[in-house]
Amino acid sequence: MKLQDNKIYLASKSPRRRELLRQIGVHFEILLLRDASNRQADVPEIVLPNEAPADYVRRVTNDKATAAWNMMLMRKLPIRPVLAADTTVVLNGTIFGKPANRSEAHAMLSSLSGQTHQVYTSIAVHFHEHHKELTQISEVTFCKLSAQQINLYCDSQEPYDKAGGYGIQGSAARFISHITGSYSGIMGLPLFETAQLLSESGITFT
Fold this sequence. Notes:
Helix content: 25-40%
Structural class: alpha/beta
Radius of gyration: 17 Å
CATH class: Alpha Beta
Order of helices and strands: EHEHEEHEEHEHH
């Protein structure tokens, strides 16, 4: 499939995903499902009963990609591939989303302290009949955190828009003793896999 302007839509408001796409030279426009911040989410990020982490992150990502494609058509925007992604943190089978408040952030970090957890990031590209999704899984090991470390981190703004209540690219990096997998995937967009899916939809890299 040949693209007119070698550009995609990114269906995400994450500044980290924007930075990562720029890092590998992808040209994109933001396509948000919600124009107003007070609107209810078009794709609810709610875990279904007995839903496995991989199934959850895959379902939410596919729903985001499909909803964004339909939004592009409804708004009569130029036709381009749509990239969507979702990231979740998993400890012993329990899904950790974004903490809603300080209490939730504190509880999440306390649970992650001294433990190895998984970070699931699913990506999907939708372009006409072409729809592909894959999920990348990395492991992150935290050192044992003191109460003071957790409290100080919760005093910052970092925990509150990130799955699991931390960002590896921020000051929480000092808590992480080991990772296995994709650093960019832990940030929210595994670049190797993303480049593969975008290439299959017609994006060229120079």
